[in-house]
Amino acid sequence: MKKNFFLFFLILSNFALAQVTFTPGIRAGANFAKFTETDGGFYDMFESTELWENEERVQTSYITDFYIGVFGTIRFSKVYALQPEINYSRQGTIMKTSTWEQKSELSYLSIQAVNKFFLQKFNLQAGLSIDYLIADKNFDPYVKNNTDLGILLGAGYDITNQFGIEARFKKGLVSQIKTTSEDHTNILFQLGVYYTFK
């Protein structure tokens, strides 16, 4: 009995391991990024806003740049995979009031863990991102955050077995700058391609 159970467990383990595959790849595309205009006071719950009451609120708009990265897809089944990624992402924002305007450019090294759910050639994506600020231009807040934590959602389509297209939305959770009593966080849309080395 014990021998038969051990043999069954060994066969089951080998079958499960045989289903797991690892596929490296690269991804690249366009970034459409900006800061939020307001985060609804979430970061201001414990702070006084009296110093900012007479200040004009800052408006933000998108800038266009690029991202490039590498990934490894760990495929556990036909419908699910975990995809760790390392990406170089150029982001930023345009901030303006009636009297001034400034374009800030920020470069991040992003480490991401993306869950992918497959529906034939389509895949749905959801994950977390830790972003490290490695360079910036025209960005000098009173207190600079060098890290960001984000959540992402997206979708992809496999054109061939190796090549596909994808679109993602990522929302930063850490305030990058504070103006007129409001905190501003990253918003990012990505549209690009990916290639797997199968």
UniProtKB/TrEMBL annotation:
SUPFAM superfamilies in the cross-refs: OMPA-like
Instruction: Spell out where the chain crosses the membrane.
Output: none
Q: Which UniProt keywords apply?
A: Signal
* Domain Outer membrane protein beta-barrel, residue spans: 22-174
The domain of life for this entry's organism is Bacteria
| First and last residue of the signal peptide | 1-18
Protein name stated in the entry: Outer membrane protein with beta-barrel domain
